[in-house]
Protein backbone atom coordinates (compact mmCIF):
# COMPACT_ATOMS: atom_id res chain seq x y z
CA UNK A 1 0.00 0.00 0.00
CA UNK A 2 1.24 3.50 -0.85
CA UNK A 3 2.43 5.47 2.14
CA UNK A 4 0.36 8.56 2.76
CA UNK A 5 2.58 11.67 2.65
CA UNK A 6 2.61 13.43 6.01
CA UNK A 7 0.30 16.44 6.25
CA UNK A 8 -0.74 16.29 2.59
CA UNK A 9 -4.38 16.46 3.54
CA UNK A 10 -3.87 19.44 5.80
CA UNK A 11 -1.76 21.10 3.12
CA UNK A 12 -4.50 20.85 0.52
CA UNK A 13 -7.16 21.84 3.01
CA UNK A 14 -5.23 25.05 3.66
CA UNK A 15 -4.51 25.65 -0.01
CA UNK A 16 -8.18 25.30 -0.81
CA UNK A 17 -9.22 27.59 1.99
CA UNK A 18 -6.95 30.35 0.73
CA UNK A 19 -8.19 29.78 -2.83
CA UNK A 20 -11.75 30.23 -1.65
CA UNK A 21 -10.70 33.39 0.18
CA UNK A 22 -9.31 34.62 -3.13
CA UNK A 23 -12.60 34.01 -4.88
CA UNK A 24 -12.19 30.57 -6.45
CA UNK A 25 -15.60 29.03 -7.05
CA UNK A 26 -14.81 25.54 -8.24
CA UNK A 27 -12.02 23.01 -8.21
CA UNK A 28 -11.19 20.10 -10.46
CA UNK A 29 -10.80 16.82 -8.65
CA UNK A 30 -8.76 14.14 -10.33
CA UNK A 31 -6.02 14.32 -12.97
CA UNK A 32 -2.46 15.53 -12.82
CA UNK A 33 -1.76 19.12 -11.77
CA UNK A 34 0.15 21.12 -14.36
CA UNK A 35 3.12 21.86 -12.15
CA UNK A 36 2.81 19.54 -9.21
CA UNK A 37 5.39 17.09 -7.96
CA UNK A 38 5.64 13.76 -9.75
CA UNK A 39 2.54 11.76 -8.91
CA UNK A 40 1.66 8.10 -9.35
CA UNK A 41 0.23 7.19 -12.75
CA UNK A 42 -3.07 6.32 -11.11
CA UNK A 43 -3.64 9.98 -10.35
CA UNK A 44 -3.36 10.91 -13.98
CA UNK A 45 -6.07 8.47 -14.92
CA UNK A 46 -8.36 9.18 -11.96
CA UNK A 47 -11.75 10.48 -13.08
CA UNK A 48 -12.04 14.23 -13.13
CA UNK A 49 -15.00 16.06 -11.69
CA UNK A 50 -15.62 19.73 -11.08
CA UNK A 51 -17.23 20.55 -7.78
CA UNK A 52 -17.80 23.69 -5.72
CA UNK A 53 -14.65 24.59 -3.83
CA UNK A 54 -16.36 24.38 -0.43
CA UNK A 55 -17.34 20.77 -1.12
CA UNK A 56 -13.77 19.92 -2.01
CA UNK A 57 -12.69 20.71 1.52
CA UNK A 58 -15.35 18.33 2.81
CA UNK A 59 -14.13 15.64 0.41
CA UNK A 60 -10.69 16.05 1.88
CA UNK A 61 -12.02 15.95 5.40
CA UNK A 62 -13.51 12.58 4.49
CA UNK A 63 -9.96 11.49 3.83
CA UNK A 64 -10.09 10.53 0.17
CA UNK A 65 -6.35 11.12 -0.36
CA UNK A 66 -4.11 8.13 -0.02
CA UNK A 67 -6.97 5.65 0.32
CA UNK A 68 -5.84 3.53 -2.60
CA UNK A 69 -5.02 4.09 -6.23
CA UNK A 70 -8.55 4.09 -7.66
CA UNK A 71 -9.95 6.39 -5.10
CA UNK A 72 -7.09 8.79 -4.97
CA UNK A 73 -8.04 12.30 -5.80
CA UNK A 74 -5.81 15.20 -6.44
CA UNK A 75 -6.81 18.77 -6.53
CA UNK A 76 -5.61 20.68 -9.49
CA UNK A 77 -5.46 24.29 -8.41
CA UNK A 78 -6.24 25.21 -11.97
CA UNK A 79 -8.81 27.78 -11.05
CA UNK A 80 -6.28 30.37 -9.87
CA UNK A 81 -7.73 33.84 -9.95
CA UNK A 82 -6.06 36.32 -12.30
CA UNK A 83 -5.35 39.95 -11.47
CA UNK A 84 -5.11 43.33 -13.18
CA UNK A 85 -1.72 44.35 -11.82
CA UNK A 86 1.23 43.14 -9.80
CA UNK A 87 0.16 45.34 -6.86
CA UNK A 88 -3.31 43.84 -6.87
CA UNK A 89 -1.86 40.34 -7.06
CA UNK A 90 0.64 41.02 -4.28
CA UNK A 91 -2.08 42.50 -2.05
CA UNK A 92 -4.21 39.42 -2.57
CA UNK A 93 -1.52 36.85 -1.76
CA UNK A 94 0.85 38.52 0.70
CA UNK A 95 -0.81 36.93 3.73
CA UNK A 96 -0.50 33.48 2.14
CA UNK A 97 -0.69 30.46 4.43
CA UNK A 98 -0.80 27.77 1.74
CA UNK A 99 2.24 26.01 3.17
CA UNK A 100 4.02 25.91 6.50
CA UNK A 101 6.50 28.61 5.44
CA UNK A 102 3.70 31.12 5.98
CA UNK A 103 4.12 30.59 9.70
CA UNK A 104 7.91 30.91 9.82
CA UNK A 105 8.54 33.83 7.43
CA UNK A 106 9.18 37.35 8.63
CA UNK A 107 8.23 39.01 5.33
CA UNK A 108 6.54 37.75 2.19
CA UNK A 109 8.97 38.38 -0.67
CA UNK A 110 6.84 39.03 -3.74
CA UNK A 111 9.33 40.40 -6.28
CA UNK A 112 10.93 43.67 -7.34
CA UNK A 113 11.65 45.69 -10.45
CA UNK A 114 10.01 47.04 -13.55
CA UNK A 115 6.45 45.71 -13.85
CA UNK A 116 6.82 45.81 -17.65
CA UNK A 117 10.35 44.39 -17.77
CA UNK A 118 11.52 42.66 -20.94
CA UNK A 119 13.80 40.49 -18.85
CA UNK A 120 12.86 38.64 -15.69
CA UNK A 121 15.27 36.80 -13.36
CA UNK A 122 13.95 33.90 -11.31
CA UNK A 123 15.81 32.64 -8.27
CA UNK A 124 15.05 29.98 -5.73
CA UNK A 125 13.74 31.40 -2.47
CA UNK A 126 14.38 34.28 -0.08
CA UNK A 127 17.31 33.99 2.30
CA UNK A 128 17.75 35.65 5.69
CA UNK A 129 18.23 39.21 4.40
CA UNK A 130 15.39 38.91 1.92
CA UNK A 131 13.11 37.57 4.67
CA UNK A 132 14.06 40.50 6.89
CA UNK A 133 13.61 43.19 4.21
CA UNK A 134 10.86 41.70 2.03
CA UNK A 135 12.85 42.11 -1.20
CA UNK A 136 14.51 39.43 -3.35
CA UNK A 137 18.27 39.25 -3.83
CA UNK A 138 19.39 41.84 -1.30
CA UNK A 139 22.00 39.69 0.52
CA UNK A 140 25.49 38.74 -0.71
CA UNK A 141 24.15 36.83 -3.71
CA UNK A 142 21.97 39.82 -4.52
CA UNK A 143 24.93 42.19 -4.52
CA UNK A 144 26.63 39.88 -6.98
CA UNK A 145 23.50 39.79 -9.14
CA UNK A 146 23.61 43.62 -9.18
CA UNK A 147 27.21 43.45 -10.43
CA UNK A 148 26.27 40.90 -13.08
CA UNK A 149 23.49 43.22 -14.24
CA UNK A 150 25.91 46.15 -14.36
CA UNK A 151 28.28 44.09 -16.46
CA UNK A 152 25.59 43.72 -19.10
CA UNK A 153 24.67 47.40 -18.81
CA UNK A 154 21.42 46.77 -16.99
CA UNK A 155 20.04 47.64 -13.59
CA UNK A 156 17.65 46.26 -11.02
CA UNK A 157 15.00 48.86 -11.97
CA UNK A 158 15.04 47.79 -15.58
CA UNK A 159 14.48 44.06 -15.03
CA UNK A 160 12.11 42.14 -12.76
CA UNK A 161 13.44 39.80 -10.06
CA UNK A 162 11.37 37.07 -8.45
CA UNK A 163 11.71 33.66 -6.87
CA UNK A 164 10.14 30.22 -7.03
CA UNK A 165 9.15 30.54 -3.34
CA UNK A 166 7.89 33.73 -1.78
CA UNK A 167 8.85 32.76 1.76
CA UNK A 168 12.17 31.76 3.28
CA UNK A 169 12.68 28.05 3.97
CA UNK A 170 14.06 27.84 7.55
CA UNK A 171 17.85 27.62 7.67
CA UNK A 172 17.91 28.18 3.87
CA UNK A 173 17.16 24.52 3.21
CA UNK A 174 16.10 23.51 -0.31
CA UNK A 175 12.47 24.25 -1.18
CA UNK A 176 10.28 21.15 -0.82
CA UNK A 177 8.23 19.87 -3.78
CA UNK A 178 4.92 20.59 -2.02
CA UNK A 179 6.00 24.17 -1.21
CA UNK A 180 7.02 24.75 -4.83
CA UNK A 181 3.80 23.24 -6.20
CA UNK A 182 1.70 25.50 -4.00
CA UNK A 183 3.74 28.64 -4.68
CA UNK A 184 4.33 28.26 -8.43
CA UNK A 185 0.95 29.58 -9.51
CA UNK A 186 1.99 32.92 -7.97
CA UNK A 187 5.08 33.08 -10.15
CA UNK A 188 3.04 32.06 -13.19
CA UNK A 189 0.64 34.92 -12.52
CA UNK A 190 3.59 37.34 -12.17
CA UNK A 191 4.90 36.20 -15.55
CA UNK A 192 1.44 36.57 -17.09
CA UNK A 193 1.17 40.14 -15.76
CA UNK A 194 4.72 41.26 -16.60
CA UNK A 195 4.83 39.61 -20.05
CA UNK A 196 8.64 39.48 -20.16
CA UNK A 197 10.28 38.69 -23.49
CA UNK A 198 13.00 36.65 -21.81
CA UNK A 199 13.49 34.75 -18.57
CA UNK A 200 16.76 33.96 -16.85
CA UNK A 201 16.53 31.00 -14.48
CA UNK A 202 19.11 31.27 -11.72
CA UNK A 203 20.40 27.96 -10.46
CA UNK A 204 19.39 24.32 -10.26
CA UNK A 205 16.17 24.65 -8.27
CA UNK A 206 14.56 27.28 -10.50
CA UNK A 207 15.72 25.58 -13.70
CA UNK A 208 14.69 22.05 -12.75
CA UNK A 209 11.28 22.91 -11.37
CA UNK A 210 10.25 25.25 -14.18
CA UNK A 211 11.60 23.04 -16.95
CA UNK A 212 10.31 19.87 -15.24
CA UNK A 213 13.62 18.10 -15.52
CA UNK A 214 16.23 16.46 -13.32
CA UNK A 215 19.07 17.23 -15.74
CA UNK A 216 22.04 18.70 -13.83
CA UNK A 217 22.56 22.44 -14.04
CA UNK A 218 25.87 22.05 -15.86
CA UNK A 219 23.95 20.55 -18.80
CA UNK A 220 21.13 23.12 -18.73
CA UNK A 221 23.16 26.31 -18.48
CA UNK A 222 23.84 28.42 -21.51
CA UNK A 223 20.84 26.96 -23.35
CA UNK A 224 17.43 28.32 -24.28
CA UNK A 225 14.23 26.62 -23.19
CA UNK A 226 10.60 27.64 -23.16
CA UNK A 227 8.52 28.43 -20.11
CA UNK A 228 4.92 29.54 -20.58
CA UNK A 229 5.81 30.51 -24.14
CA UNK A 230 8.72 32.73 -23.00
CA UNK A 231 12.33 31.91 -24.01
CA UNK A 232 14.19 30.97 -20.83
CA UNK A 233 17.97 30.88 -20.37
CA UNK A 234 19.53 28.92 -17.53
CA UNK A 235 22.65 29.99 -15.67
CA UNK A 236 24.37 29.56 -12.31
CA UNK A 237 22.83 31.00 -9.18
CA UNK A 238 24.90 33.94 -7.88
CA UNK A 239 25.26 32.12 -4.52
CA UNK A 240 27.01 29.29 -6.39
CA UNK A 241 29.34 31.83 -8.01
CA UNK A 242 30.29 33.08 -4.55
CA UNK A 243 31.26 29.55 -3.56
CA UNK A 244 32.84 28.39 -6.81
CA UNK A 245 34.75 31.13 -8.61
CA UNK A 246 35.40 28.77 -11.51
CA UNK A 247 31.73 29.04 -12.60
CA UNK A 248 32.10 32.76 -13.25
CA UNK A 249 33.54 32.28 -16.73
CA UNK A 250 30.54 30.20 -17.87
CA UNK A 251 28.11 32.57 -16.24
CA UNK A 252 29.71 35.46 -18.09
CA UNK A 253 29.28 33.59 -21.39
CA UNK A 254 25.61 32.94 -20.51
CA UNK A 255 25.08 36.61 -19.73
CA UNK A 256 26.54 37.62 -23.07
CA UNK A 257 24.07 35.32 -24.81
CA UNK A 258 21.22 36.68 -22.74
CA UNK A 259 22.16 40.28 -23.43
CA UNK A 260 22.57 39.65 -27.17
CA UNK A 261 19.09 38.10 -27.40
CA UNK A 262 17.66 40.91 -25.25
CA UNK A 263 19.14 43.57 -27.53
CA UNK A 264 17.84 41.79 -30.61
CA UNK A 265 14.32 41.75 -29.20
CA UNK A 266 14.13 45.25 -27.78
N1 LIG B 1 18.63 33.52 -3.35
C1 LIG B 1 17.52 33.42 -4.09
O1 LIG B 1 17.35 32.47 -4.83
N2 LIG B 1 16.62 34.36 -4.00
C2 LIG B 1 16.76 35.42 -3.23
O2 LIG B 1 15.87 36.25 -3.20
C3 LIG B 1 17.94 35.51 -2.48
C4 LIG B 1 18.87 34.58 -2.55
Give a structural overview:
- The structure is a single chain.
- The protein has 266 residues and is of the alpha/beta class.
- The protein has two domains: 8-76, no CATH class; 108-265, Uracil-DNA Glycosylase, subunit E (3-Layer(aba) Sandwich), CATH 3.40.470.
- The protein contains twelve helices and nine strands.
- The protein has a six-stranded mixed sheet with strand order 4-6-5-7-9-8, sandwiched between helices. A three-stranded antiparallel sheet has the order 2-1-3.
- Strand 8 and strand 9 form a beta hairpin.
- It starts with 7 loop residues before the first helix and ends with a helix.
- The model is unreliable at 1-5, 30-48, 51-58 and 60-78 (pLDDT under 50).
- Uracil binds next to helix 7.
CATH superfamily of the largest domain: Uracil-DNA glycosylase-like domain
**Low-pLDDT windows of residues:** 1-5, 30-48, 51-58, 60-78
CATH architecture of the largest domain: 3-Layer(aba) Sandwich
Alpha-carbon Rg, integer: 19 Å
The unique ligands bound to this protein are: uracil
- What amount of the residues lies in strands? 5-15%
Count of individual domains: 2
Strand order of the largest sheet: 4-6-5-7-9-8
Silhouette? globular
Structural class: alpha/beta
**Tell me, what is the CATH class of the largest domain?**
Alpha Beta
The ordered string of helix (H) and strand (E) elements is HEHEHEHHEEHHEHEHHEEHH
Q: What's the mean pLDDT score?
A: 82
Number of helices: 12
Largest sheet: 6 strands, mixed
> How far apart, in Å, are the first and last alpha carbons?
55 Å
CATH topology of the largest domain: Uracil-DNA Glycosylase, subunit E
Total strands: 9
Amino acid sequence: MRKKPANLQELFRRALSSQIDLGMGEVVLGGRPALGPRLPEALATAKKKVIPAGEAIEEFSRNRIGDGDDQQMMISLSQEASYGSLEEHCQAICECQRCALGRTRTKFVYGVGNPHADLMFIGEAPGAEEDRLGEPFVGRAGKLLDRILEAIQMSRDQVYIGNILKCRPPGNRDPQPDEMALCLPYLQEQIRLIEPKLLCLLGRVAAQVLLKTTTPLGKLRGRWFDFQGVPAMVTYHPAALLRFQAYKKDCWADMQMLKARHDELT
